[in-house]
Amino acid sequence: MTPSASDLLAEAVRAFQARDRDYAAGLLARLNAEDAPLGDDWGAVARLAATVGEVSVALAASRRHVALKPYDVERRLAYGALLAECGRIEGAEKATRAFLPNAPRDARLHLLLGTCQAQLGKTEAALADLRTVLDLDPAPALISAAWLAIADLKRFTADDPDIATLQALILATGDATPSGLYYALAKALDDAGEVEAAFEAYETGARSARALNPPNLAASRDFVDQVIAGFTRESLAKLPPSTADSDRPIFVLGLPRSGTTLVEQILASHSGVKDGAELNLFRAATMALGGYTPSDVSRLAFFPGSENVWTLFGRVYLHLLDERFGPEGRIVDKTLNHTRMVGLIHHVLPGAKFVWLRRDPADTALSCFRSHFVSGLNWSWSLEDIAAHFADEDRLHAHWSEQFPEAILTVPYEDLVQDPEIWIARILEHCGLPFQSGVRDFHLTERAVTTSSSSQVRQPLNVRGIGAWRRYEAHMRPFLDAYGGHPA
To answer: This protein's superkingdom (predicted)?
Structure first.
């Protein structure tokens, strides 16, 4: 008996739960190709397809889901968010803007619009939509998100009425204040030169966030220990080889706020490169591993019939790049957790190049502590936790640089901003890209920037960020003591 569409979807879910990405993707593609009568279940297809990296199926399924109830706000929001998640920021903005005349006034639509426009560099339009969010008096979480975005887009002065508004909001919400409001107020106070009050607000927001989701630093340290001990050039060479030797991906590595978005902007200013941002596609391509420790790899590596699995992983990753970007051009992948997977990535994609950013740890620590990361990096909510995380990342950089020196170019942030001609040339050479004069004017490149550095990378290089931590030197002692003293 021919299985029904619902049966095929259920089988796809089971395959996903069993970490059989390719089988799940095939079933989802079949449902899409057959325009299966799934009704409202097309929403589930869209979510699952996006999770496994099948962008074409995800977007087609989401459009079908919207078409069933074209005036439903929840479906329109889901479609806009999916477009943004898949890197179609302009499409998300246009689709959401076109829906507004047919929609009830909803703060979530304006927050999505404001976020997209901020990422596209449309500052005034973004601010207008974010102010609309506040005018609609939504739930505290939306108010917090809007104020965070506003604070990132503008520079405050001491007499800015927004500061008093933020202070009044925090006073009114009391213990229920979302952490983001403290970060927004802290940014405003910092702009206004009120260093003590700003740091107090950052600390309050960080404590609030950490209480809800504390990091497991011991587990993180244990994972890094296993990776360093178990993944060496020699041990990885014992695995069956991969023939997926494409040089298409360029992996940009480094801590948040260390200059990774700047290097992505430089590379994306080259005609042969597309910006991919934090793709997280390698995890999707290799989900059959179940984990990324040496023991996880060993369980699969020597399982009967798995000889070609490393080539298949590589081909799936490259397929997912095609899905998202089309078949042409090099792609920058700056997914944060890749620092812990360099050995595996190098084995699966032996032709790939890595660019690793290194920045003064105190400057990076302060910048991380002052950032309210959308992805919720729970190690960033305490200066001592930041020090522990940085120490692990230092060990990973030393290890991978020793194992694969020919594949990794280490770029000191301070040298890059002070000697851009030299370092831009080195980055392009390392990636096998011919020099183009346009990369010198990278700040003029128009593209969506989805990280906290969206405004900085649209400015010419400057050295203002070097040594910025000293403004907060008295407050940085917990980091300096835990990390190992005063930076050089």
So the answer is: Bacteria
